[in-house]
Specification:
hydrolase; two-stranded parallel ribbon; single chain; binds coenzyme A; alpha+beta; 3 helices; five-stranded antiparallel sheet; 185 residues; Thiol Ester Dehydrase, Chain A
Length: 185
Amino acid sequence: MSEHEFRTVKASQQVLKELMVPSYANFGGKVHGGQILSLMDKIAYTCAATHARCYCVTASIDSVDFLNPVEVGELLTLYASVNYVGKSSMEIGIKVVSEDFHQGIVKETNTSYFTMVAVDEKTRKPAPVPGLILEDDAEIKRFLEGKMRRKFKQHYKEELRQARRELDIDKELWRLDGENCRLQR
Ligand SMILES: CC(C)(COP(=O)(O)OP(=O)(O)OC[C@H]1O[C@@H](n2cnc3c(N)ncnc32)[C@H](O)[C@@H]1OP(=O)(O)O)[C@@H](O)C(=O)NCCC(=O)NCCS
């Protein structure tokens, strides 16, 4: 890839539709969360690999909150778009909606952000990805938010690492007061 290559957000946007069949159900009769995660990973890969035009791996997934249960018989639609790109990483924003198409009811299921990294197939090392051409305010906003999320995640990881290093359980036992646990050591 040449150093100054840029591609539009629209060029790699993806839509994936899948009917929720009975084999996707959990013991409670609703669609298994893992099934939806697998579809999200699939569309994240397609979107990232279309932008990078090379093999990509999933480096991390932001928290996924399931807002509404998905029923067997509903049509799930996933939308994916590259929000932000670094040197070799891409933040893919994914929105999932489910639709009871007999009744015409559409529910938002969840939104999440996957970080995908382009990898050189020979060396298995991270490979540079094209830049993004931002064509409207919504794309600029998503790019800036992606950059913020990346910074916050790095800070959070560093702070957590530091807090774990400094954790002295004997000094912190008072924090268990009122928690749903019982000491039995
Ligand atoms: C993701 C991976 C390629 C990163 O390799 P690495 O040698 O640590 O690479 P670097 O530290 O140079 O990071 C490369 C890029 O990935 C990003 N990155 C690495 N780990 C990350 C993480 N956990 N979360 C988010 N971004 C991450 C870096 O920020 C960097 O981004 P940039 O190039 O845009 O600045 C490597 O950790 C890997 O192969 N992981 C396994 C991925 C996989 O198999 N996924 C499927 C699991 S079943």
